[in-house]
Amino acid sequence: MDSLPPYAIFLIGALFIPAIGGRLRRVALLLIPLLSGANVINLEQGDDWQLLFLDYELIPVRVDELSLLFGYLFHLAALIAVIFSLHVRDTTQHVAGLVYAGSALGAVFAGDFITLFIFWELMAVSSAFLILSRRTDRATAAGLRYLLIQVLSGVMLLAGAVMRVQETGTLAFEFIGIGSSGGLLIFLAFGIKCAFPLAHNWLTDAYPEATPTGAVFLSAFTTKVAVYALARGFPGTEALIYIGAVMTCFPIFYAVIENDLRRVLAYSMINQIGFMVCGIGIGTALAVNGAVAHAFNDVLFKGLLMMSMGAVLHMTGRINGSELGGLYKSMPMTAGLCIVGAASISAFPLFSGFVSKSMIMVAVLQEGHPGVWLALLFASAGVFHHAGIKIPFFAFFAHDAGLRTSEPPNNMLLAMWIAGALCVFIGIYPWMLYELLPFEVVYTPYDATHVIAQLQLLFFSALAFTWLKLTNLYPPELRSVNLDAEWIYRKVLPDAVRGISRASVPLASALSDGVRGQMLVLGQTMYRHFGPQSTLVRTWLSARMVLWVAGLLGFYLFFYYS
Amino acid sequence: MIGAHLPALQVVVPLIAAPVCVLLRRPRLAWGLATLINWICFGVATALLARVLTEGSISYPLGGWAAPWGIEYRVDVVNAFVLVIVAGVSALVVLFARASVEKEIPAERIYLFYTLWLLCVTGLLGMAVTGDAFNLFVFLEISSLSSYALISLGPERRALTAAYRYLVMGTIGATFILIGIGLLYMMTGTLNMMDLARHLPAVAGTRTVIVAFGFLTVGISLKIALFPLHSWLPNAYTYAPSAVSALLAATATKVGVYMLLRFFFTIVGPYFSFEVMAEGGLLIAIALLATVFGSVVAIFQDNIKSMLAYSSIAQIGYMVLGISLVSVTGLTAGIVHLFNHALIKAGLFMAVGCLAFRLRAVTLQEIAGIGRYMPWTMAAFVVGGLSLIGVPLTVGFISKWYLVLGALERSWWPVAGIILFTSLLAVVYIWRVVEAAYFRTAPNRGHPTRFQEAPWSMLVPTWVVILANVYFGISPSFPIDIAQRAAQALLSPLP
Amino acid sequence: MNQPPQHFFDKPENTTKVLWIFHVLCVGLLVIDVFYHRHTMHAWEDLWGFYAFYGFVACVMLVLVAKQLRKLVMVGERYYSDG
User: Fold this and answer.
1) Residues of chain C with C-beta less than 8 angstroms from the C-beta of A449
2) ipTM of the shown complex
3) A490, exposed or middle or buried, with CB in 10 Å at 0-12, 13-18, 19+?
4) Chain-chain contact of A553 with B420 (C-beta, under 8 angstroms)
5) pTM of this prediction?
6) How does pLDDT run across B42-98, given as a tens digit for each residue?
7) Domain residues of chain B, as ranges?
C-alpha cells in the first residue's frame, strides 16, 4: 500500500501548526484537508493494514464502501470547518480541530476495537478542547461534563471489546449484534455517542457552549462516527427502530421552547440522528443507504445552519432568540444561506435532505412499521417547524432587535457558500451521492407523488406556524433553562449527596464527642475521609503502624490455621 | 573469562565502587563514577538476560562453594528481568540526578549521596540475583539502610522524620522476613532457595512452617507497602530528593514484589501458598482494596509527589492482584506490570523532579500555568500520566489488558470492573495536574526568567523513559514474551 | 441624521403580500390532491389531503404540547449555577 493512513496527515499536520504562524499557518490549515483528501481518494477498497498486537490481529485501516463514504464526508466537513475558522487566532482551537477531524477519520477506518477505542477517546479529548476554548466558566463546566461522558463511553467500548474477545476470540470490528453481554455493552457505548434518549444530554449541554467555530467541527464528527459504528455493528437491530423513532420525536418539543438557537440546533441534531438510527434499525439495503446518505447530508446542512448561527454569534455576541431579530437587513447573505440550510434540513424538494430522508421513510413503510412511520412523519413536520422556520425566523426576521452589524468575515461566508452549494447540488443531482452508498440504489426521489406529498406536509406545517404566530398562540422566546435528563446528574444527584452529608453530620457528631465542623459539600466530606488530614491518610505514628503490623500478622496466622 | 562470572560481577562491581566513591569526594567525580558503574551494571544485567533467554537458568556458586552449603547465585528469566529493570532505571535516573542533586543537596554531601546510591543499587541487585534466602536478607538490609539515608538527604526537614518512620517500619519488615527465613531453616536445615523448595513439601503442614509463612507474608507486605501496611511510603517518596523518589518508586517495590514471587512460588510453591493456605482470596481482597484506596486518596493530594506515591500504592495493588490470580495470564500481567510500572513511575517522578528543579514546591498551587514555561516537562508528565491511566499505545494499557483478561478468565467480573473503575480514578488525579498546569493562569511570578525549562541533562533521561513508555506500548512483545516465560516458569513444578 | 434604509419587511403590506401568496400556494396544493392520484404504499396515504392535514395538526399539537411542557420543565436561567 503506497498511501498514508487516512488520519496521518491531519495528526501530523496538527503537530506542526503551533510552530508556524501568520499567513503561512492559514495556508497550512487549508493544505492539510486538501492533501489528506487527495490521499484518501487514492485509497482503494481492500487497501487494509494489518498488524499483530499481543496475540491479536489488528486492522488499523480498513477500506471498504462504508468507511470510504465517511472518509470523503469527513474530509469535506473538515475543509469547510477549517475555512470557517480560518480567522481564529487561537492555536489550541486549530490543533484541537485538526486532531478531532483526524481521529474521526481514524475511527471510521478502524477495523478492530483497539484502534476504534484509541480514536474514540482521542476524539473525546480533542473535541473537549473546542468547548473549553470558549474560556468561560460555563463552557469549562460543560466541557468537563462532556469529557466525562465521552470518556465513559470509551471505557464501556473497551470493556465490551474485552468481553467480546472472551466470547469470540477476535477483536475485529464487524457485525456485532446485541445478543451477547459484550455486544450489549458496545451497543450502549455507541448509544452514548449517538445521543440515545436519556444519554443525549451531553450534546445539548455542551455543543451550545462551544466556540462559534468549534461547534461547526463538533456538529460534523462525533455523532456521525457513532452512526457509522452502529451501521457497521448493529444493522437490522430492531430496538434501533424504536430508539430512533423516540429520538426523532422528543427533541422537537424541547426545540420549540428553547431560546438559545444553537441549543435548538443541538436538539434538532438528535432529531436528525433519530432518522438515521431508525434506518439502521430497519436494516434493509434501502434503509441503510438512506441512513448513510442522510448522515452525509446532515453533516452539510447541519454544518451550514451551525455556521450561520456561529456567524451571528461571532458578529453580534448573542445567540438567544429573544435577543435577536431583523438581522436580514445587515446580514442578508448569511440569512439566505441559513435559509438554504433550513430548506435542506426540512427536506424541501431540490434540497439535499429530501433525497435521503425519503429513502428512510419509504423503507420504514415497506417493512411494515406504520406506527413508526407516523412518528417519523410527525418529526419531519416538526423539524421544519423548529429548524426550518424557527431558526431563520427568530434570528433574521421576527421583530427587529435593533442590532446593526455586517456580514461575517469572508472566510466564514466562503465556508457557508460551499456547504450551501453542496446542499443544493445534492438536492438537484443526488446520483453522485447514491454512487457512493454501500448498496446499489434503485430509488428515484423525484416523482410527482413524493414531491407533492412532501410539499403538502411542509406547506401546511408552515401554515400552522403562521396561524399560531398570528393568533399569538405561539410560545414567546423566553430566557430560561429547560430541564432535561441532565437534571438527574446536575441537580438530583448533587442535591442527594449534599443532603446525605448534611444529614450525616449531626449523626456523626452525636456518635462521637469530638468536635466536627459542618461538612456540607461532598468534596469536603470526601476530603475528610481521604484528604491529607484524614484518619487513613494522616501521617501515622510509628506505634500505630506497628500495631497494624501485629494485627495483620495475627490475622494471617489465624487465617492460615483455620 | 568474564562471562562466567557475570552473576557475581552484578553485585561486586557496585559494592566495590561505593567505598571508592567516598574517597573521590568531589561531587562531579563521584557522579561520574556512579554513572559509569550503573551503566556497567546495566550492561551486565542485559548480558545475563540475553544468556538466560538463550541458554536457560545460570547457577553460580559464589567462591566455588557448591550449593546447598555455599551461597549460590541463581539467575533465571524472572530475576534476570528484574535485574534489567533495576539496573536500567538506575542507569537512566543517575544521569538525571546530576543537576537535580546539585540543586537539592549541599555540595559537601554529594559524594555521600552517590556512595549511598551505589550501595542501594548493590542491595537491590543482590536481592534479585541471589539464590540464597539468608543472603537475600543481607542484601535487603543493605538496600534498606542505604535508602533510609538517601531519603533523609531530602531538602526539607520533614525528610528526616519520613526516613525515620521508614526505618522503623522497614526494620520490622526485615526482621519479620528474617524470622520467617529462620523458621524455615529450623525445619529444613537449608537456606538455599532451590533446596528449601525441595525439602518444604515434607514438612508443609507443620505449625512452624505456617508461622514462617505468616511472618514472610507480613514482612514482604511491609516492604512493598501493600495496603494497609503502606503508611511509610507516601512521606518517604514525597520528601526524598527527586532522583531518589524516581529510583525507589521504580525499583525498590519491584524487587519487593520479586521477593513475593520467589517465596510464594519458587520456595513455598503455588499449590501450597494459594490453595492450601487460601492465600489467593485474601490477597485479592487486599490488592483490590489497595487499588481503590490508593487511587481515591491520590485524588485528594495537593502535593504531586504524594499523589504519585499514593498512586504507587494502587499500582502495587495491581501487581499483587495479577500475581494472586495464579494463572499464566495473571502472573504475566503482574510481572509485565513490574516492568511497565517501573517505566511509568520513573518517568513521572523524573518529570516532577524537573518541576521541582524550578519551583519551590511541587504542589498544584505552585504549578499553576507552568505548562507555558516548561512545555517539555509537562508534555512528559502528560504522556507518563496517560500511561499510568492505561491508555492504548502506552505500556499502562498492556498491563491493564492482561489484568482484565486474567480476571475474566476466571469470570471475576467485579474484579475487572474495579480495574476499570480505578483507571477512571487515575484519569481524575492526572487531570487535576493537567488542569492546574495548562488551564490555570500563573500567579505573578516575579521574575519570569526564573521559570524556564529544566536543563537538558534532566529532560533527556526523562524523555528516554517516557518514550520507552510509548515504544513498549506499541510493540510490547519483548516484555510480554519474557513475562510469559517467567510466569510459566514460576507456575511449573520444580524439576 | 439621514433616514435609515427601508427594508422589505419594514412595510406591513409586504408581509401581507407574502402571506397571501403563501396561502394561495397552500390551497393550490390541496386542490392538486383532488385531481392527481398519488401512488401510495399505505391506506392512510390515500385519504384526501392526508399529508396536508397531518402536517398542520402535527405542528399545532407540537406547539401546544410544548407550551404545556414549559410548565413542567422551565426553570430560571441560573437554576444549575445557583446549585
Assistant:
1) 38-40
2) 0.89
3) buried
4) no
5) 0.81
6) 999 999 999 999 988 888 888 777 767 788 888 989 989 999 999 999 999 999 999
7) 278-495
